[in-house]
Amino acid sequence: MQASLLRSSLCRLILKFLPPDIIQSTTLLSLSPPFAMTDTLRNDGLYIVLYLTSFMQEQKFHWALYHHYRQTGDATQGYRYHIRTVGPGWIADHGPNSGVMGSFSLITVVYIGTISQAHVNQVATHASQFDAQLNQIPSMTCRVWTMMVLQSLVNGHLLRVGGTVDQIEAEMKEIGAEHENNAHLNVQPRPIRTSKYAIL
Known about the structure:
Pfam families: DUF6540. There is one protein chain. The chain has a six-stranded mixed sheet with strand order 6-3-2-1-7-8. The protein has a two-stranded antiparallel sheet with strand order 4-5. The relative contact order is 0.19. The longest helix is centred in the C-terminal third of the chain and has 20 residues, at 165-184. The protein has six helices and eight strands; from the N terminus they run H-H-H-E-E-E-E-E-E-E-H-H-H-E. Helix content is 34%, strand content 25%.
């Protein structure tokens, strides 16, 4: 119990003082705490992933997309797409991910729908289409980017959902707020949720 509380306190201190460009980095978002995680992610599932931000601001999250296209034993293997801040601007930081549930800054992952792994390259194309113009798009944030890509996947008929992208965004904010405090307290395991707009 004392070790768990110590890890929780350490995580909160790290998140409080690190700048946003560091806490949003691929390395930090992938660090795994010393606990066992049961993988219940859906193969071929597309997820919105919410992380704590560095300054512990209430209901202010870092947003990403994760496509879980393969499972080997207990390992989660897929591709995470997100953008992060570097100085005053944004850069794309997409790449393979084998431990999406292991980040100590994770709040939750939320299943949005299914995209066959046969379309992995098409998902990557949709996710990277804005990379060269991130700093030319007004009011760009990781949340805005996530919803832009989600809309593109819907428009491209790769993703079927039972609601609008705006409805999904509002739901994500509610889910993030629901689980945010437990993430600050390092409550394990982190929740895997299913959007009410996902078509099962």
